[in-house]
Amino acid sequence: MLSTVHIVWTLLLVVIFIGIVFWAWSSSPKNRFHEASMLPFDDEENNAAAPHSELERNNE
User: Fold this and answer.
1) Local confidence band at 41 (pLDDT 50, 70, 90 cut-offs)
2) SS in 3 state form for the chain?
């Protein structure tokens, strides 16, 4: 009985893993992934004139 539970659990995890891989490589989330990958650069462009640290604010 215990080995059957292990087999079912393993097969379930393999199916979930394959589903996640298929979803990640499909074309639907690519726009979201691209937008997320550009977030660090957008932040720098939007805050270019603002001081970056507390030290810089104190020195002005």
Assistant:
1) confident
2) CHHHHHHHHHHHHHHHHHHHHHHHHCCCCHHHHHHHHHHHHHHHHHCCCCCCCHHHHHHC
